[in-house]
Amino acid sequence: MSESFYTYKCGHTAKYEYIKPDGAKTQSFTLVYAHGFCSDPYGRKPEEIRKWCIENGMGFFRYEIAGHGSDAARFEETTINTYKSQIFEIVGEMVDGDVVTAGASLGGWLGLLAAVQFPQKVKGFLGLAAAPDFLKKYFEAYFRPEHKEILERDGKITFPTNDFTYVITKEMIASGNENLLLDKETIPYAGKTRLLQGMKDASLDWRTAPLIAQKLTGSDVKTVLLKDSNHRLGSDSDIAEIRRALDDFLVPAAHPGR
Fold it and tell me: Which range marks the domain in which residue 181 is found?
């Protein structure tokens, strides 16, 4: 695996990997993968997606979100606007040709924002427990009055969950509210969309995926609810579903004689 470092316009430097599409293919796109909050782009899901892209001659771009991985020391400096600026730069300037954005959790929010921003370039979106607006939902569900007082006084709060201890800043919450998608009547993206969601997800209401599907303006939208799957979508059966969803982004070859 060949990785490089890149300094984005937002001022953060982080690792990325860019495999360009097979030029011999009549159809080609680059799948841009965005990982989850306090996660990284090297788990089983992105590895399997990378493998699928290589097998099918498609390009693959994965990257560390600012404040994560090699840039983790600067996490508290980041906001949703930082992350949005980063993926917009990737899709708009770094990747050539057509794109399919794919994202897990936070990455799904970012991938959807990029699809809305670049509707002509982003030909499809794959959401894997996609979590648009998750900061607002998290704030409303888990922040008690004393937490809000600390946040107002100190500008940040350390808030533990079952899996991680997050440092949430006022700027992070505010920027999340600037980028809400699910509070709108529609999400103005009409490209092919596939949404996979586990119904045993302890981090995200499984009804988020159907809500995204309902609000998208396109008609080529499918939601797959996996009854026994969790937020990670990393089991063998989950990976098989992800590969099936990826297959949908391939244009079938024309039938001879047609």
Answer: 4-132+172-247
pLDDT beneath 70: ranges in the chain: 1-2, 160-164, 252-258
Question: What is the per-residue pLDDT for 252?
Answer: 64
Does the pTM surpass 0.85? The reply is: yes
Q: Quote the tokens at residue 249.
A: 């982004």
Distance CA 129, CA 230 (A): 9
Q: Is residue 142 part of a domain?
A: no
Partner residues linked to 125 by β-bridges: 101, 193
Q: For 231-249, b where at least 16 C-beta lie within 10 A, e where not — what string?
A: bbbbeeebbebbeebbeeb
Look at residue 163 in the predicted model and tell me its pLDDT.
61
Number of domains in the chain: 1
Please give the Cα distance from 20 to 58 (Å, whole number). 7
Which tokens belong to 59? 């390009």
